[in-house]
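Teaching note: in complex prediction, the entire set of molecules is handled at once rather than each chain in isolation. The prompt given to students was simply: 'Predict the structure of this complex.' The entities are:
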Amino acid sequence: MKHDETLDALIERRGVSRRAFLKYASYVATLMALPPGSAAALAEGLAKAKRQSVIWLSFQECTGCTESITRSSSPTLENLIFNFISLDYHHTLMAVSGEAAERARVEAMQANKGKYIVVVDGAVPTKDGGVYSTIAGVSNLQMLEETLRDAYAVVAVGTCAAFGGIPKADPNPTGAVAISELSGGKPLINIPGCPPIPEAMTGVLSYVLSFGKLPELDHFGRPKAFYGETIHDRCYRRPFYERGLFADGFDDEGARQGYCLYKLGCKGPTTYNACATLKWNGGVSFPIQSGHGCLGCSEPDFWDRGGFYRPLPTPLGAMGPALAGAAIAGAALGIGAAVAARSHRNGASATTGKDKE
Amino acid sequence: MTSACLAQQAQNDAMVDALLREILVGLKHFAATGDSVSIDLGGLPMSGRDRAALDVFLDAGEVRATIETVGRSEVWETRFSGVWRVRHFADDQIAVDLIEIAACPKILSADQRDAQGSARRLEEALDEKIAKTEISHET
Amino acid sequence: MDLLAFARGPALTFALAVFVLGSLWRLIGILALPPWRDLSPAREGAPPDWLAALQGIFGKMIPHKTFLKGGMFAIVNGYVFHIGLAICVFAFAPHILFLKSLFGLSWPGLPNGLVFAVGALTAGSLLAALAYRLTSPVLKLISRGDDYVSWLLTFLPVITGLAAASHIGARYETLLALHVLSICAFLIWFPFGKLMHAVLFVFSRGATGIRFRHRGAQL
Ligand code: SF4
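The expected output is the structure of the full assembly:
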């Protein structure tokens, strides 16, 4: 369907005042740490924007990302985004299915040519022509290509879409790849996480809607507003880390005291995400607050980084055989060198007839 | 209190003091020029205790209002005229916490375009009311 | 694979393997040489060999009066960065975790702030050592490429470690990767250059102790 009505007309029709925009805009500005005063500009932008057509494609994924965004805690403020976007296709959420669903996607694409945003969760299998994941007989690869052709931008939601995630984990049997490898130069925003923080998804969409441009991104295409700092940077257990107070087990005295979880494999220092500040379930808690180290789920290949409980400074991979081999070779070389020296010396003393020492 | 606690306390006060200083600068600026200033407390590393300390210090002044749109919001003037608190709630949790230094926080005043719409609605309602009374007079 | 995974994975494995191989090669190569025999009778009052060796090792740690005057700076500075390095390597919690993963042994660490301060001091001390080497005519004359390479490969882990700990210069994971890679370089160079003195000094001083004391020389 086509979306001609501006958002303020729509909001007015629903009997809500422009205060709602301002309030929502302050919320997004807070989330994204936008400079003071941008809330007003954001509200203006939103009011003038048209309802944004969104086509949501789900590929190799677990639906956790959809769960995350649809469960954003408040039924009012945070969910206001669903008034601003029109989810024209989302095969998990939409009422129709089969033929009708696919038709809705094609119709939305035609009606909003060049303007719709494609949200993707899940990686795309590319091996064997992409047969490992199909929807209505169409491979994910093909559907992505087709849908992206006339899209304005693509948002890769979740680590699978952003970096390949679990489908791409070693040995990657389906040849799964991240959306960035297939986006063909379309503007791309990665919102990784397993799942991503709902506020990161809604915040970014609102930003694009109001300002008509992508937010500032880091080198992995992640919005800096949410992925600009590491978990460790903003972790409330950080003072314990600095003082060298660590939990050695999940049930020891240190754990009870709430000490730093670094020794238990916390990946907070190398993980860029907003869990430590925005937290989860409406600000209730986040993994570290619940006593478990960060898994690093918003980083590429988090699944293949030597195990969740392996402390960050330890070597990856099995050292044993390499070191044992090196030790044997070293010892052999050493003995060889000594033997050579002895025979050289013996040879020398035989020819000169006296010991040089 | 242990020394660690005392150190923590000093650190907390430092946070609040720095913020109050920023508010003072903003208030002086507003008093001189009339330009409003907004400070977002959300981005600051404030603990619950910091927030409480700030609330106690700024206290409440003459105005207090509640806004009911897409959830509840509370607005009140602090004991320092021109310094306002704006708090939006989501699920009874603070979602946005602002300090606004202005004649009146923007969210309180009605938008002109909203007024256009409401003028229309008022007119309709009035017409309806008059029509109704006319009908009742006739009978 | 990103830089950090490369550093922690293949690079570190390779470097440690070279380190073990090279160190054992040199050490066993030296220790398996035929024992040096002094056929002369020991001087009267000469201590047994083991004691002489200990005297050689520890006695030399405090320099002779004659050298104290002129070389005070080099001696004190040498102590500063050696002890500093030891503290940084063995008392920083992440390093202890690293060593534990290799040897299975663990011990309590020092607070990060303290280790950081020691690290900064060590870096300064290493720079001073280089400056001294470059300005002292004698030292300059006897310095070879090996000395400078060994200095650099000691300095790099310290400076990258400080940068990583303070998040200065680049993103933390990049700094950490560079730190690990600098250690890889250190480990690879260790057995083949003068860094090997960290192991060999015990044997050379011990041997010197035995020979000197055997001949009745004081240490
Ligand atoms: S728990 Fe993790 S993120 Fe928090 S301080 Fe410790 S290492 Fe850093």
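Point out the following to students. The interface with chain C takes residues 230, 232-233, 241-244, 246, 262-263, 269-270, 300-301, 305-306, 310-317, 319, 322-323, 325-327, 329-331, 333-335, 337-339, 341-342, 345, 357 of chain A (CB under 8 Å). Residues 320-352 of chain A form the longest helix (33 residues).
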